Amino acid sequence: MRVMARRRPRTVAAQMLVWQLAMLVLLVTIGLVIAYADARHDAYGDARARALDIARSVADGPQVATVISTPQATDVLQPYAERVRRDTGTDFVVIMSPKGIRFTHPDPTQIGGTFRGTIAGATEGREVTETYTGTLGPSVRAVVPITNDGRVVGLVSVGIRMETVQRTTLDALPGLLLVALGVGAIGALGAWLVQRRLRRQTHGLGEVEITRMYEYYDAVLRAVREGLLLLDGDGRVMLANEEARRLLDAPDSLEGQRLADVGLTTDDAEPAEVHDRPVVLRDRVVVMNQAPAQWNGRFVGWVVTLRDRTELQAVTAELDTVRGMATALRAQNHEAANRLHTMVSLVEMGETDAAIDFATAELEMTRSLADTVVAAVDEPVLEALLLGKTSQAQERGVRLTVDEATSVERSRLTAHELVTVVGNLLDNAIDAAQAAGPDGQVHVLLHGDEAGLDVVVDDSGAGIPEDLRSRVLASGWSDKPDPSGQGRGVGLALVGQVARLHGGEVTIGASDLGGASVTVSLSTAAGSAS
């Protein structure tokens, strides 16, 4: 059994062309009928007016009123009436008595007979026009009284047969048909041009395909978990799905806006390709991709995708901190093994006092650092972080000191937020101090309680120029290379995010150590209220 292939439905453009042509034919036909009816009406009107004018002229003839009452009326008026009929192209000119007795007629045998038609109004001195079937068939006629000294002495009837009127109408029909064909041709050409343009715009798709495509696209836009923005060639938003509006905190329509209007600033003045660029949006960190959209090799706009990396970035920063602490612990383990071997060797050599002094000095230094941190910080996570960062800094040739005025009680900030703020600030400071050269220094001062937390971190690095300080937190700026291509400069952006969440602020200035000084002031009360 052969399965017949399903015929592809007509395109929208083809259907529109068919409908337009059908409407064009209908309108041209209606117009032609109306024009023909109007021409026929005009022909009848012209025939009545022409018959009436000729009848008036004959009735006003000076010899007609005089001769009509004499016995020679027929002999004199018949040649005259026939001459008028031939000269005017009418079908009959009948001169009769007030009672309707004919004195003239195109058919001489009808002379002396009674006129067939309405003469009652004419005998009373009025002009009468009508369509009537007489001896010559249906005709349009006019009956006009002949008066002499105010008295009706006779009647004149001039008629044009209906055949003649219809022939006049038919003579106008070719012109009407020519005009109709011209209008139809122009309309068909316009419909074809519209069809071509519509075909290009709809890409030759049918209404079922367009409907199905819209339904599928709408379902995909709603189902995809990435923010999606479609831009036109000028970089203005044409379409945004729900996830994009959520990430951009824009419940209303985004149509017509540019990326800069919704906070998606880039370094390029004009739209350009962007790959995995981190962008900070208020309290979010998103990864932005932008690629050109093409159809059949023709550029039609841009496609922008947004992925929420806020939680992932925060977890990554926390993981980096934990990795740093683990590295420091491994280094300490290595150093502890070295110190243990040293003490064992001193004991084996009989240098017991030297071994005791060495062990006591190492223990005192470690205990002093731990006691300082534990006494000042009543937050286990923060204690571990400071101790780990101190060891990490030491391994990298940077001396990290905790200010003696540091005092942190139990904080309402979550452990995650503490690690995000303090860990990122110390990481940046240690990187800057190490990059500036040997003998790098980092100084940290913390003061906090249930009401809030203040963190001040100074370093001996190169510092941050004053004209760039406003960009550090606004766009995830970084002056460090990015070999991974995943984007840098998100750490301080996360710090700014936590600060805004708790109604705080981040201040960047110059440090007495020669580098940068970053101050973070947080208010947990404001954060809880929000």
UniProtKB/TrEMBL annotation:
A GO term, aspect molecular function: protein histidine kinase activity
E.C. no: 2.7.13.3
Highest rank taxon of the organism: Bacteria
Matching InterPro entries: HATPase_C_sf (IPR036890), HATPase_dom (IPR003594), His_kinase_dom (IPR005467), PAS (IPR000014), PAS-like_dom_sf (IPR035965), sCache_3 (IPR033463), Sensor-like_sf (IPR029151), Sig_transdc_His_kin-like_C (IPR004358)
A Gene Ontology cellular-component term: plasma membrane
Catalyzed reaction equations: ATP + protein L-histidine = ADP + protein N-phospho-L-histidine
One Pfam family cited in the UniProt record for this chain: HATPase_c
Gene3D superfamilies (UniProt xref): Histidine kinase-like ATPase, C-terminal domain, PAS domain
GO biological process: phosphorelay signal transduction system
Cell compartments where the protein resides: Cell membrane
Main location: membrane
UniProt membrane topology term: Multi-pass membrane protein
Spans traversing the lipid bilayer: 172-194
Histidine kinase domain location: 303-526
Keyword Secreted: no
Keyword tags: ATP-binding, Cell membrane, Kinase, Membrane, Nucleotide-binding, Phosphoprotein, Transferase, Transmembrane, Transmembrane helix, Two-component regulatory system
Classification via SMART domains: HATPase_c (SM00387), PAS (SM00091)
Name this protein carries in UniProt: histidine kinase
Organism: Luteipulveratus halotolerans
